[in-house]
Design brief:
The strands form two sheets. Strands 1, 2, 3, 4, 5, 6, 8, 9, 13 and 16 form a ten-stranded mixed sheet that branches. The chain has a six-stranded antiparallel sheet with strand order 12-11-10-7-14-15. About 40% of the residues lie in helices and about 20% in strands. It contains 13 helices and 16 strands.
Length: about 475
């Protein structure tokens, strides 16, 4: 019976692929047919407008004075004018086209569901609660979340010792964490920003004891990718009594640990400025023209495996790669245990490259790759870096590496979980799926006759994925 259901499901996916291709074609053809020659001209105007807008953004960032404001006006007005022209000329056809495109996207994602590689699963281990947990809390992080959510009081009720940082003093968080381990702590935790999390996590990894993330920072990217509740930091403390343990990777930029990323180039140079904290936009606009055109800042060379990126304006090295296949998943990591760094490099030489970054599906100015090690070189002895949002100077060259499975993270057994980004639309795969007939539409594991077959989406094991919500202990 499972075989019949599986084949019926793949037959539905095959027809969904055909529907997606048909809807996409109609979405393009409808305004062209409705508008005739005007439709072709509008399509050309739309593409040209996008390119001009991207070029105008580049000019806005690299020019000063009246030319900058003129470019900013172009960047805002051209897209608005193109949209208004489309709306006035092809109003009903445009609405129909948008509806058809929405149908194509929905059908395409349904058709590709389960046809790609299954998401890797990581083992969750049930271990006894810690006996001597120590939590380091920064009361200033996240606008005072430690006090607002009464994190100290709840943690102490659960048996944890809390080290509360004094906002008026400068603390060595690493030294405090090591002191806690020397006093017998069997779990370290941190309530603060990602920079604080990284420092405490590195000490926990060094001594192979669990680390507890409390989402009390401003953005909490690491907590997000672990599937924790960013809206209620107090819920993270449930891991002290009802938690599971995950093994995740930890990144290093030289000797500096990071749980999210280390950035080099324009952004890293801007955050070094003393004026940045008080006037982020003004400081960025003042420094970007010289940084983007190479008149200021170090000349970087990034080496990752067989790839060399020369003179990029920015390089982002992340602890596991960020999702880039869909705009809804940007800035998220599906995995934290892939044992590779993500590398994103940007090198634009002018307005044409900026336009290509928007119009070209595979722009030459953008480099995306993964590697276990990345070396950042410069033409000066020190390089500005932003490590998990903290500005610092690192001696060149900077060797970035990943420590696979180095960090034991204790998380609540019940948590929101990591929301998987939507399936990326791969039109080539859709065409292949739509062209298949009969038994060739199903995966090879469904095309044999030796006994009953499992359903196509049944996981190979019962372990939950990293950051997913679990309602029961793993079997």
């Amino acid at each position: 019976m499972a075989v019949d259901l599986s084949r019926r499901g793949y037959r539905a996916q095959r027809w969904a692929a055909r529907g997606a291709l048909a809807a996409a074609a109609l979405a393009v053809v409808t305004p062209l047919v409705y508008g005739g020659l005007r439709g072709l001209l509008l399509l050309f105007c739309g593409v040209a407008g996008l390119g001009l807008s991207a070029a105008a953004v580049w000019w806005t960032l690299t020019l000063r004075g009246p030319l900058r404001w003129g470019a900013a006006l172009i960047a805002v007005c051209v897209p608005a004018a193109v949209l208004a022209l489309f709306a006035v000329t092809l109003f009903w056809a445009l609405l129909v086209s948008l509806a058809l495109w929405g149908l194509a996207v929905w059908c395409g994602r349904f058709a590709l569901r389960g046809t790609g590689s299954e998401r890797a699963r990581v083992r969750e281990r049930r271990l006894p609660p810690p006996r001597r947990p120590v939590l380091i809390m920064n009361p200033r992080s996240g606008g005072g979340k430690v006090g607002r959510f009464r994190l100290r009081e709840k943690a102490e009720r659960l048996g944890a010792r809390v080290v509360l940082l004094d906002p008026s003093e400068r603390h060595d968080v690493t030294a405090l964490a090591r002191e806690a381990v020397a006093d017998g702590a069997d779990l370290l935790g941190a309530a603060g920003g990602d920079g604080t999390q990284a420092l405490v996590a590195a000490v926990a990894a060094e001594h192979d004891i669990p680390f507890l993330v409390i989402s009390a920072g401003t953005r909490n990217h690491f907590a997000l990718d672990l599937g924790l509740d960013r809206g209620d930091p107090a819920a993270c403390l449930d891991a002290l009594t009802d938690g599971v343990e995950l093994r995740v990777d930890l990144g290093f930029a030289g000797e500096q640990p990071f749980v999210n990323n280390a950035s080099f180039g324009a952004y890293a140079a801007i955050v070094q400025s003393p004026a940045y904290r008080d006037d982020k936009i003004g400081t960025s606009l003042e420094m970007l023209p010289d940084l983007l055109t190479g008149q200021q800042g170090p000349r970087l060379v990034a080496r990752a495996g067989d790839t060399t990126l020369t003179a990029p304006q920015a390089v982002l090295v992340s602890n596991n790669p960020y999702h880039t296949g869909d705009p809804f998943g940007l800035g998220r990591r599906e995995r934290l245990d892939s044992a590779v760094l993500g590398v994103l490099g940007v090198r634009l030489e002018g307005a044409v490259d900026a336009a290509a970054l928007l119009l070209n599906p595979d722009p030459g100015g953008l480099t995306l790759l993964t590697a276990p090690e990345v070396v950042i070189e410069a033409d000066r002895p020190e390089i500005e870096a932003g490590v998990d949002g903290e500005a610092m100077m690192l001696p060149a060259p900077v060797h970035c590496r990943i420590a696979p499975g180095a960090l034991r993270v204790r998380v609540p057994r019940r948590r929101p979980g990591v929301r998987r980004p939507p399936q990326r639309l791969d039109w080539r795969r859709l065409r292949k799926l739509a062209a298949t007939v009969g038994r060739t539409a199903a995966p090879s594991r469904l095309r044999h006759t030796d006994g009953p077959l499992p359903p196509p989406h049944e996981p190979a094991d019962r372990h939950e994925p990293t950051g997913s919500s679990a309602s029961a202990p793993p079997r």
